[in-house]
C-alpha cells in the first residue's frame, strides 16, 4: 500500500481559483489587493522564490510591487523602503524576504512592518494575536499545512500530532493553530533536546517535519497510515533534500511530496493573507 499524495501544487491552483473572484470584487469596490516584496542582495534561491510569488500574483490578478535592493544597502535605507510601503495604499501586504545579509539587523526591520500589512503572519503583533486567539494574519506555512490536511479530509479533531523542529516560521507557531478549538489536535513539539524522537513520532497520527535535517524521519518511526508533511528544505551536494526519507511513503497513509507539497501551499496562503488584508480594509 502506498500513501495518498497531498498535492500542494494542485491545491494551490484550486485556492487560486477561489481567490480570483474575491480579487475581482475587491478591485470593483476600490480596495484592490497588492503584494510587495522586499529583497536584499542576489542570493539565487531568494530571487527564484520572489519571482514565483510575483508570478502567483499575476495568475490571480493581484498587483505586485518589487523592491530589490543591493546587497550593501544600509539599515536606514531599508527602513525608508518599509516606511514607504507602510504608507502606500496600493500595497495591502508585503514581505521582507529572508534571510537578510548579516550586516542588517533583521528584528527591528521586521517589526517596522505595519502589522495590518504583515503578509507573512510573523510580525510580533501577529504572533501575539495568534497566542491570544485574536484575528490576525496567520503564518503562511502552518496555515498551508492545515489547509492541505483539511482539503484531503485528514482528521485533526482529537488527533495526536508530532511537530519536529521549533523554528519561528513553522514549528513554534503551528502548535498554536493546531490546538485551537477549530482544529482540536493534541501536539507534541519535538526538537534537538527530545530524548526519544522515534517514540514521539511513532505515536503520531500526523507528523510535521520542519527540522531542516535531511531524511530525519525514517519509515521505521512512522505509524502505518499516518499523515506525514515534509517541510524541510536543505541544499545538499545531491540537490535539495527534505526531512522525510523517501521510504516513508510505503508506510504513511498520506504524504506531502517535496517539492510540490508544503512550498506551494505557503505561497497560496501568502496571497490569501494579502486578499484578507484588503477585505479587512473595506471593513
Ligand atoms: N519573509 C519570508 N517569507 C517566506 O515565506 C519565506 C522567506 N522569507 N524566505 C525563504 C522561505 C522559503 N519559502 C518557500 C516558499 C515556497 C517554496 C516553494 O513553493 N517551493 C516549490 C519549489 C520551488 C523550486 O523548485 O524552486 C515546491 O516546494 O514545490 C519554497 C520555499 C518561503 N520563505
From TrEMBL:
Known EC number: 1.5.1.5, 3.5.4.9
The keyword Oxidoreductase is assigned to this record: yes
Residue span(s) of domain Tetrahydrofolate dehydrogenase/cyclohydrolase catalytic: 6-120
Superkingdom, natural source: Bacteria
Signal peptide boundaries: none
GO terms for MF: methenyltetrahydrofolate cyclohydrolase activity; methylenetetrahydrofolate dehydrogenase (NADP+) activity
Binding site for NADP(+): 165-167, 233
GO CC terms of this entry: cytosol
Keywords: Amino-acid biosynthesis, Histidine biosynthesis, Hydrolase, Methionine biosynthesis, Multifunctional enzyme, NADP, One-carbon metabolism, Oxidoreductase, Purine biosynthesis
Pfam families: THF_DHG_CYH, THF_DHG_CYH_C
The reaction(s) this protein catalyses: (6R)-5,10-methylene-5,6,7,8-tetrahydrofolate + NADP(+) = (6R)-5,10-methenyltetrahydrofolate + NADPH; (6R)-5,10-methenyltetrahydrofolate + H2O = (6R)-10-formyltetrahydrofolate + H(+)
Annotated pathway: One-carbon metabolism; tetrahydrofolate interconversion
Annotated family: Belongs to the tetrahydrofolate dehydrogenase/cyclohydrolase family.
PANTHER family: C-1-TETRAHYDROFOLATE SYNTHASE, CYTOPLASMIC (PTHR48099:SF5), C-1-TETRAHYDROFOLATE SYNTHASE, CYTOPLASMIC-RELATED (PTHR48099)
HAMAP family: THF_DHG_CYH
Protein name per its UniProtKB record: Bifunctional protein FolD
Origin species: Saccharopolyspora kobensis
Gene of this entry: folD
Amino acid at each position: 500500500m502506498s500513501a495518498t499524495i497531498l498535492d500542494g501544487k494542485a491545491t494551490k491552483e484550486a485556492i487560486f481559483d477561489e481567490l480570483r473572484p474575491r480579487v475581482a470584487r475587491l478591485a470593483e469596490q476600490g480596495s484592490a489587493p497588492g503584494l510587495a516584496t522586499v529583497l536584499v542582495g542576489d542570493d539565487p534561491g531568494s530571487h527564484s522564490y520572489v519571482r514565483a510569488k510575483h508570478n502567483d500574483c499575476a495568475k490571480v490578478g493581484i498587483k505586485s510591487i518589487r523592491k530589490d535592493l543591493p546587497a550593501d544597502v544600509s539599515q536606514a535605507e531599508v527602513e525608508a523602503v518599509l516606511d514607504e510601503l507602510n504608507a502606500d495604499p496600493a500595497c495591502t501586504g508585503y514581505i521582507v524576504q529572508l534571510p537578510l545579509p548579516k550586516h542588517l539587523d533583521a528584528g527591528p526591520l521586521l517589526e517596522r512592518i505595519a502589522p495590518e500589512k504583515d503578509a507573512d503572519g510573523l510580525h510580533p503583533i501577529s504572533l501575539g494575536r495568534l497566542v491570544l486567539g485574536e484575528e490576525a494574519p496567520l503564518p503562511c506555512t502552518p496555515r498551508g499545512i492545515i489547509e492541505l490536511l483539511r482539503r484531503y479530509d485528514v482528521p485533526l479533531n482529537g488527533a495526536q500530532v508530532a511537530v519536529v523542529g521549533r523554528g519561528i516560521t513553522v514549528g513554534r507557531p503551528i502548535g498554536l493553530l493546531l490546538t485551537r478549538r477549530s482544529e482540536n489536535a493534541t501536539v507534541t513539539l519535538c526538537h534537538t533536546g527530545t530524548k526519544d524522537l522515534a517514540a514521539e513520532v511513532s505515536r503520531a497520527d500526523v507528523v510535521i517535519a520542519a527540522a531542516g535535517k535531511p531524511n530525519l524521519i525514517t519509515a521505521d518511526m512512522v505509524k502505518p497510515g499516518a499523515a506525514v508533511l515534509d517541510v524541510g528544505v536543505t541544499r545538499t551536494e545531491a540537490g535539495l533534500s527534505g526531512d522525510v526519507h523517501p521510504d516513508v511513503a510505503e508506510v504513511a497513509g498520506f504524504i506531502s511530496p517535496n517539492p510540490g507539497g508544503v512550498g506551494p501551499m505557503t505561497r497560496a496562503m501568502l496571497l490569501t493573507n494579502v486578499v484578507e488584508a484588503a477585505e479587512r480594509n473595506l471593513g
